[in-house]
Structures are given as C-alpha cells and as structure tokens.
Amino acid sequence: MKKTVFYIALCSALVQCTSLKLGKKVQPTVITEQVNFDTDDPAIWINPQDASKSLIIGTDKETDGGLFVFDLNGKIVNKVPGLKRPNNVDVEYGFNFQGKKIDIAVTTERQQNKIRIYEVPSMKEIGAISVFEGETDRDPMGISIYKNPQTEEIFAVVGRKFGPSGTYLWQYKLSESNGKVTGEVVRKFGNFSGKKEIESIAVDDELGFIYYSDEGFGVRKYYADPAKGNQELALFGQKDFKEDVEGISIYDTGNGKGYILISNQQANTFNVYRREGDNGNANQHSRIAEIPVSTKESDGSEVVNVNLGPQFPNGVFVAMTNGKVFHYYDWREFQKIIDEQSQSK
User: Fold this and answer.
1) Is residue 276 within 8 Å of 301, Cβ to Cβ?
2) pLDDT (tens digit, 9 = 90+) per residue, 155-198?
3) Which keywords does this Swiss-Prot/TrEMBL entry list (predicted)?
C-alpha cells in the first residue's frame, strides 16, 4: 500500500514538473464557429486593402465536406459545400489569370483525386486538376503553394495518403488556359520512411525551401525550385515528438529569419525551430522551444506576421482542433514563450 501511494505521488510530481517546465497552455483569442464534420487544415488570406478584414479558409474533411471561410472574429462568412473529403488548403497571391493578377486558394479533394482552385475572396472555382494520374496510390492530402520570387511562377506541391519513397510528392506548375487553371507535372520527389504517411507540407517562398512531415519519423527539407534538384537537405525533429509529426507553419521575423512551428500532435504542443537554421548552417534545425496550446490533436496550422488589428498586432497563429473548430492565437503569446525557452538553451 505504501509503495502504491509513493508511486502515485511520484507520478503526480513528475506531471507537475513537466507542466511547470512547459508553463500553462496558451489560450486562443478566438474560437471559430463550428463546421459540419471535421476541421483539418487552415489557410490565411491577407486583405490587401484592410488587413483587419482578412480571412481564414479552413477545410471540413468529410465525404460531403467543403471549405469554410471565417472572419477574424471566427464567424462563418462564406462556404464552398459539396466537396468530397477536402483535406488541406493553401493560399497564394498574384496568380496571372485572364490578363490580371488574382489571389487563389487551392485545396486537395481526396476522394476525387483532384486539386481545386478558387479565386479569393469570392471563392469562385476557376479550375480542377487531376493529380497523381497513372498511379495506383493517389488520394491527395497535403498541399502547399510555392511562388518563385524571381520568375513569379506558381507551383502546387501535392502529397498523398500513400506513395513510394523518392516520388511520394508531385509538383505541378500552375497556369491559365481558356479561363481555367491547369497544372503541368514538373517534378516527382520526396523520401518516405514507410512508417505512417505524409500530409503536412509547407513552403518558404523567400528562402526557397519545402518542408514536410513524415508523420512517424521526422521533418524533411528540400529545395522548392525544381531546377535545383531533388537532394534532401535535412531530416530533423526525429526525437522531438511524442508520436505524430503534423502541421507545419513558418513565421517570418525579417531578414531571412524566423521560426518553423510543427504540431506535436499527441502532446498538444507545437515544437519550434529556427527558420534560418542553427550556428550558421541553414540546414541544421534543433528545437528551441515547445509551446503548450489548447488545441487537441492538431493536424493543420498556419501563421502570418501581419498586423491584423488590435487582437493580433503581430500576426495570428491558426490551428485546427477537435470539436469542429479552429483556434486563433495572438502571436505575442507564442513569442513570449519562444523568448523564454530559447534564451535558456
């Protein structure tokens, strides 16, 4: 009996120590209205006329799911219903379409083996591209958009539920033809451990890197420009996650610096790495902080550094959570924790 009591007390003390080390969970500033089925991944569109009127676009991942568009107060302001299991979504600016530049949102539609493209903010569909054609395993899941800063060419980097190591991800060059967006395969790449799957993908346009989560293994890094080849530049975070490596977001602090935030899904935290790398090595990434959040089992996330008004003057971090909602976090709360933990390393 005494041994049992001691063991319980010891476990309790260890939990308290862990809690003290990480600190209190960051609470969301805003919780969105509910979608119909299951949130999975958000994207953020910055309104160029008034950043306080920016939008969050999120997936509702089910057979009769769709895209939901929220304002910065978490209210649903638009919907794209009737999609067959939309998985991930991303936004890009300045796509050349019928003689003008527009902003686009692109989502994977898993059960149709397509990506769908929408003009933002109207959410009018302007294209649907069949992906992984000729493959036995298709089921598109992850997506991230890359815009080459020099050429302004725009590419969709698409992942899938299953796929062979070496060609797990496909990269499509997007263009307009006869009023529709089309895609040309320009690259097949991406190592895979074979442990779980690859879903979350993030692109750093400015620095020219692609990151993706090999869920049961670690985070992989490649060049975003297909002309630079398919060499894997880094594999990191292998001992930093409780189980699944999930959603990836990149926060820009200027001058090529910032943070890579990656969901430690089962721990309900986000691990933080330096965007610019460590010790002058752009491809060395060691964890500098771990942020405890109120999200549960978070798959997808996104972050921006833009002043969006009084609630989010240094930007917003958006994450999906169980409960059919998204959480919006004030970046300042994240920065405090990063500063405190990184200074102690």
Assistant:
1) no
2) 999 999 999 999 999 999 999 999 999 999 999 999 999 999 99
3) Hydrolase
For the chain, what's the residue count? 345
Cis peptide bond prior to 121, omega within 30° of 0: yes
Does residue 17 lie in a domain region? no
Q: Which domain holds residue 190?
A: 28-343
Q: Are 189 and 171 in contact (CB under 8 A)?
A: yes
Q: Look at residue 23 and tell me if it is in a domain.
A: no
How many independent structural domains does the chain possess?
Answer: 1
- On whether the pTM is more than 0.70, the answer is yes
Q: Kindly write down the DSSP assignment for every residue of 283-338, as one continuous string.
A: T---EEEEEEBS-SS---EEEE-S--STT-TT-EEEEEETTTEEEEEEHHHHHHHH
pLDDT for 22 equals: 75
- Nearest Cα residue to 299 out of 199, 202, 210: 199
Confidence of residue 314 (pLDDT cuts 50, 70, 90): very high
